[in-house]
Write a structure and sequence with these properties.
Length: about 250
């Protein structure tokens, strides 16, 4: 593409990560404004009225939902194919993407990552350790039990990497940030699947950036990303004033 697309949203978001992996797989260059949704200014609210990330902007449209963005990219840039052609498999892929975005998002992000990372580092609030323990004891096993029945013994769900694999793996990367690891004895297929997916080159390109940002105060993220050579936008939709979103990140 002669003009790269623009992504608004930080590298540590699983929803942003999903779109960045799809862009990489399809060979689409991009510029990124690496804000968290809580730092979005009034202009951000106009292009993302639910104050969600990522926001996608190209020469045709502005979109503010990761699943809509990925479907748009598949329709406009069909190679390589990331959604199965068979209508039954395609429907299942969309379901697994939705399951990841909704149920896994609720548990991995809002009940775990929010408690361990967002509350203390963004809002200066203490982690509710009892809530985290309850999540790990009750919610996480339910998700892992379900995934153990969905993932294959080898390779990916539909043979080659698809939106279903990408969507699921994105949340396990955030779980890694909280030092969570899948018990390979209790859920061997899921543990092996997650390892395979996150080893993929398109995830691997993001790993050193993510690892560095985890060690960097939020206010310094953009400067560190410039140092790392990330494809930053010149302008930002970010603000020094933080505000809580009207809905959760998606």
């Amino acid at each position: 593409m002669s003009h790269p697309v623009q992504i608004i949203g930080g590298y540590l978001s699983p929803y942003v990560r999903k779109v960045l992996v799809v862009l990489d797989l399809k060979g689409i260059s991009y510029k990124i404004d690496p804000i968290i949704p809580f730092s979005g200014n009034d202009s951000f609210s106009r292009i993302s009225p639910l104050r969600r990330i990522p926001v996608f902007i190209d020469d045709q449209t502005t979109l503010a939902d990761s699943s809509v963005i990925c479907q748009y990219l598949e329709d406009r840039y069909p190679e390589p194919e990331l959604y199965p052609t068979n209508i039954v498999e395609r429907a299942r892929a969309r379901w697994l993407e939705e399951y990841a975005d909704s149920r896994m998002g609720e548990v991995f992000i809002w009940r775990l990552f929010n408690q361990v990372a967002i509350k203390p580092n963004v809002w200066g609030e203490p982690t509710d350790k009892a809530a985290v323990e309850k999540t790990l004891r009750e919610d996480m096993p339910q998700i892992l039990d379900y995934l153990e029945e969905q993932v294959p013994t080898e390779g990916f769900i539909f043979g080659k990497l698809s939106i279903a694999d990408i969507s699921i793996a994105c949340f396990f990367r955030n779980a890694e940030f909280t030092r969570f690891r899948v018990d390979a004895v209790r859920w061997p297929l899921t543990a092996a699947f997650v390892e395979r997916a996150l080893r993929h080159e398109s995830f691997g390109k993001l790993k050193p950036i993510e690892d560095r940002l985890l060690r960097t105060p939020l206010k310094q993220h953009r400067a560190v990303l410039a140092e790392l050579g990330a494809p930053l936008t010149q302008e930002t939709y970010g603000s020094a004033t933080l505000r809580r979103g009207i809905m959760r990140i998606d």
